Amino acid sequence: MRETVAVAGTLEDTELRRSRAPSARRRFGTRLYGLLLIAVLLSFWEVSSRLGWIVSAYWPPVSTIFAAAITQLAGGEMLTSLAATLRRAAIGYVTGAVVGVSLGILLGRSRLLRIALLPLIEIIRPIPTPAVIPPLILFLGVDDTLKIFIVSLASFFPVFTNTLAGVATIDDTLMQTARTFQTGWLRTLRCVLLPATLPAISAGLRTATSLALVVAVLAEMIAGSSGIGYYLVQMQYALRPDLMYAGVLYLAVTGYLLNRMFLILEARLIPWMGKT
Q: Do the beta carbons of residue 107 and residue 165 sit within 8 Å?
């Protein structure tokens, strides 16, 4: 009997590995095509610059850009600037996310709060971030407070919107069951509201992740004295396109890594998202 169970388990494992293999190969093939496209575009950039197809002081060869990026790994100013930007983006992101989730849940469960606050939020939400920066300079100055507030504001809206939508889609039977068993508000929040809305919250957090980095760089470009955004502007004025594009390359890699890290954490913390 035990031998039969062991054989059955082995057969199931074999079938499971076989079913996963084509999916893994498809993912690898998709990524390979994407990498090939990037390689082709970068090769065209290199050739067009070397052969003079595009004559411009701001079109250096890709090899020169990579060399500048590698040089900065030895502790150049670029990495210091990037670290400052990431610190501001992280603080603003966490602040905006906490406020967005909290308000999203509160407004989702309270009709009175929705009537009072939702019109104001909907009026502010469409305003472009660059248009908000100049007035805020008058009140917050050009220090870190301004950048962190701008990042918090940009991160707040996608998190709030998705959280509010997630709360609205909760099956009312779950809430009625919690009331029937006289479950307290905190336990209902922890055991019913948050698990049910986590997929929606995660979607908003992922959107806010990329927005936080973009808005932090934008704020530094407009009203900054440090950070990678300020560094890019300074390299443009100094006619150092190799360092300018190297900074853009660092931003692209950083954004990609942040997105991958978020997906890994999402798969570990919210495993039921892929089991619909």
A: no
